[in-house]
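Before the break, one more example. Copy the sequence into your notebook; we will annotate it together after we see the structure.
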Amino acid sequence: MGITSEIPQSFSTRAVVEADRVIDMGCADGLLLPSLAKAYGHVMAIDVNEDFVARSQRLIQSVKLENVQALSSAGLSIVDV
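Here is what the structure looks like once it is written out:
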């Protein structure tokens, strides 16, 4: 099985009932963000690694994912999300 940018079947929108928001915990370099952005109204990408957050932010800007936000989880509480 190779790396894919498609949302795995187990992560399909059917798994989240009537959801308009999703959090990609451990987003790494943001591989799933374009697919998630198409499926959800708002996507929050979170990773503890600042380099991965920076990569995700570059991807968000380069493909103009206006409904996606990338944040570092360092110092975040679930209330912040």
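The mean pLDDT is 81. The helical segments are 33-39, 50-62. Try to locate both features in your own notes.
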